[in-house]
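**User:** Once you have settled down, spend some time on the protein underneath, comparing sequence with structure tokens, and judge whether sequence predicts the tokens.
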Amino acid sequence: MDELKPSKDSKAAKSRTIDFHASGKFNSQSTLAIEHAFAKEKKRYPPNVTRNTKYNIFSFLPVVLWEQFKFFLNLYFLLVALSQFVPALKIGYIVTYVAPLCFVLAVTIGKEAVDDMKRYRRDQEANSQRYQMLTPSGFKMVPSSKIRVGDMIVVKKNQNVPADMVLLRTTEESGACFIRTDQLDGETDWKLRLAVPSCQALPSDEALLELNASIYADSPHKDIHSFIGNFTREGDGPGQHMESLSVDNTLWTNTVVASGNAIGFVIYTGRDTRAVMNTNHPKTKIGLLDSEVNRLSKILCAFTLTLSLSMIALNGFEGLWYIYLFRFLILFSSIIPISLRVNLDMGKTVYGWQIMNDKEIPGTIVRTSTIPEELGRIEYLLSDKTGTLTKNDMELKKLHMGTMSYSVDTMDEISTHLDTAYSQQSSGFNRTRGISTAPTHIGGNKARRDISSRVRDIVQALAVCHNVTPVTEDNGSITYQASSPDEVAIVRWTESVGLTLVFRDINNIHVRNAGGEIFEFEVLQVFPFTSETKRMGIVVRDLTSGEITFYEKGADVVMAKIVQYNDWLEEECGNMAREGLRTLVVARKRLSEEVYQEFEARYHVAKTNITDRTNAMNAVVNQVLEQDLELLGLTGVEDKLQDGVKTTLELLRNAGLKIWMLTGDKIETATCIAISSKLVARNQSIHQIAKLTNALDAQDELDLLRGKKDCCLVIDGESIQLCLDYLREEFIEITVRLPVVVCCRCSPTQKADIARLIKQYTKKRICCIGDGGNDVSMIQQADVGVGIVGKEGKQASLAADFSVNQFSYLTKLLLWHGRNSYKRSAKLSQFVIHRGLIISIMQAVFSAMFYFAPIALYQGMLIVGYTTIYTNAPVFSLVLDQDVPEDIALLYPELYRDLTKGRSLSYKTFFSWLLISVYQGGAIMILSIWLFENQFVNIVSISFTALVLNELLMVALEINTWHRFMILSEIATLFIYVGSMVFLPTYFDLNFILTKTFVWKVAVITMVSSFPLYVIKMLRRKFAPPSYSKLTG
């Protein structure tokens, strides 16, 4: 049996030929036997199961624990906790060391379990979705997970497509249906899909089972925009009937049928589907602050070992010194605070909540919660243009036809010319051909008729040459669906001047003029726009005259080589580009019936090629159609600037960010937008590099650019590639110093390469922002990726770390939330480290005064409560602190420059806190022993009380702007501590604590340990104030 022919190695996922479930082939077999045989063969392909879970019931605990303990800090605390089960190393209560680690692990395991359970439930829901399957015994319902290659599945309107399929039939007579692809590629526009013509022509769905046919599908790959296949049908006579299949005949998994019902033939399932192959799990981004904290943790580890060795050395390495060394390492383990990671993660959650609930930037979503501090460290901003700096809201502003030009003010003349051209008999024209039948004398009426004819020709070309489809909504309104906003803008413009698109399917286009007359065109061929060809074309037959016309429109760089010679196109394209308009060249070619039939035959052969199909098809189009096209005109479409773009760019430039604009547009358009958006400052010159052809020319340009410091570089994609290939180091070294760089004609790959190069060369933080699928690779390459929810869809937004609704939100995101996140986390990190250091210094002093004995000063509830109920709330309240008011931070973006220097958390500040901890820990312990020499039995309650009070005062010292939660946490913590004394008689003797002697001496100890820090802070503010002090008054 060879009805299914998968590759021998299914993992290789090679191309496949899949035969139809034709009952006619198996007359001698029972239906049950047929189904059993097919089911057995289908199992050789991957099952159609959605599986997004990270773990299973057996791997969960081992994998989660491995993920935690592969980090040094967690492993360190595990070893410390396990050491307490060794009698010789045991210090105090085991719970003191085990409980904190268990708490951290419990939080992590619980979070992972909840997240994976959610993924499991989503998978189960997707796998249990039921679909109709066409079988020899009729239609039957099957769950999505039971669908196999070769099945025929019915997908109803608004239903998700369960597997990659070829569209066989639809309920639409034309054989077309629309699908929504926003869940696959993020694009919000509807896509048109076409049924296999010979299957659509069958009398019923059940007739599919009688077909003696097969489908060839190329090997599974990631590209959702390409597919090579063939539909082969055995006829009654000799030979085969073959039809080519392309992406227009496919329904990919996770798309949604938007119109009618469809029957699809499953060609890929499970891991072979485009959706699964494009599901990438980007590496978890680690922020710069996290890396800095990790480095400081290593220093703390070295400090712990040094302190332990010092205690052993000062005791002369007496006795079992190696045992004592381990005991000291355990005693001083609080120097490396296990609560640091928990506090920072909780802080990040708070920052994310604040960002998403900021009413001034509504709709902002934090998708990566681990890097909010990075927003405060950005030095390079890489931005897309269309849809990011501009609205992607298109409007046709200019129409140029060589000798005539129309702008917004004169568009009404076009309507007049159209009325003249389409008028019956009075025009003196042949309506279809546009050739004058009037006398050949030259006069005013003839000139007007010529103009009207030319206007009619280009407007008609624009009304027909597109991929726009009018869709009637449920409320009766008509909307235009297309893959590009440019297309919709042009069709809306033709409607405004009097030629309206009223109907479109795969075979016909109907347009209506202002007089209500309908013009019908049969669609013979469509050549869709691609980023490689940069043009789209269509062959139509005018059903009134029978004339065949090939229309084409595209970018000037490719169309200039296709159209007939002219002396105005290049100049006018440049003029429109300088006005910031996106240009499209429109042309046509009339075809005789014989020429078209020759083309169709050659094109059909090229379409059925299995290898190099695309190039073969393009070659036929180029050789037959794209020769000496008649140039009809040039359109200029405006893409309006986003709201607040000028102000945002100016603020970010003043904040010290170097800004790169990466766009696919031509140099003139990009330069115009750079100037109009204030990306280029008034006093900056523009240095342009374009059309470089060799490395020597590139070297000369770079040498010339080297001497220019404050200028804007504008460079095209070809020149960029030349520099990257031959002068990579020199190119990046020079360009990263420039304040503004505009890269034109950039491919998505080039955008990602540039982002990666800047990161690698400068070691600085970069932010990439874009709105389309072509920006995803760049966004994922950045330290901080920001996606804009725009008209191109949500693909960039879904792939980004932060999703915003418009470009201007960057100001608040970076200058305010970025500042707060970085400053707060830096302060929180240092304070948590200080909290662990000070208690370890007190332990060291205590041990030193008692013959360097490794005996714990605090045990049990005190050591656990110290980092939790006694100090955690006040310390964590630092995540609400702000050093400057919001209006000051946004009014003076220059303050942002200080953040990028990383001074808030540096080796200098770390060692300052280390010295503070040594001083305060020593002062508290020494004074406790000295002042309470006669009450030594109460040394624990004395020193611990002074320690807690000192920490509360230190938190107050560090706060710049008081928040009600800060005040509440300070007061509540003090009351909790005082109240706990009653319930912990083991550590606190109430008869002693309630004496005046205890109160005033503890007050003195606390004053000595903390008051000098207040004095130092006042002196520093007086003689070395921070940069913002004058602004905040």
